[in-house]
Amino acid sequence: MPKTPLEIAQDLRPALSRLNLLYFRQADSYTISLAQMSIMTILDETGPMRISQIAQAEAIRMPTASNAVNQLESMGLVSRVRDVSDRRGVSVQLTEKGKEELIRSGENRNVALARMIENLTPEEIAQVEKAAPLINLILNRYTEAHSKD
């Protein structure tokens, strides 16, 4: 009998938490946090967004999103622009410096994660390769379901 989502979560959570912690410690020396990188990635993928849209996409509160945007703006990684659809509104977009930092930081983090994966056998690496689309699917389905709330 297949496991329930809760049973699967109970199996995965400890390892994912520890893996994330170890990965985060490696990424700790980078200039932007994982949360900031996530916001920058969304802006890179979707283009300019209002802070309320960023908060919704990241499943965080508006003050948290606003604070993160302020930090990114102070580093010159994002800028605020008038929303073309509503002149009263302001959107946030990546700057050229932000795009460059996103690429550089992403490449460095890819290397850090690759170091964790390279300890596996070729067969295990093939399993991780097959799991990657499923992990993305979990993220996408969760984001879609919660963006409607």
CATH topology: Arc Repressor Mutant, subunit A
- The radius of gyration over CA amounts to 18 Å
Classify the secondary structure makeup into a structural class. mainly alpha
Q: Based on CA inertia axes, which overall geometry fits?
A: globular
Low-confidence stretches: none
Q: Supply the CATH class.
A: Mainly Alpha
The beta-strand count equals 2
Q: What is the arithmetic mean of pLDDT?
A: 88
Count up the domains: 1
For the record, the CATH architecture stands as Orthogonal Bundle
Most strands sheet: 2 strands, antiparallel
CATH superfamily label: Winged helix-like DNA-binding domain superfamily/Winged helix DNA-binding domain
> What is the distance, rounded to the nearest whole angstrom, between the alpha carbons of the first and last residues?
32 Å
The share of residues in extended strands comes to: 5-15%
Give an account of the 3D structure:
By secondary structure, the protein is mostly helical. The chain has a single domain (5-118), classed as Arc Repressor Mutant, subunit A (Orthogonal Bundle), CATH 1.10.10. It has helices at 5-27, 34-46, 51-58, 62-74, 96-117, 122-147, and strands spanning 78-83, 86-94. Strands 1-2 form a two-stranded antiparallel ribbon. The two termini are 32 Å apart. The mean pLDDT is 88.
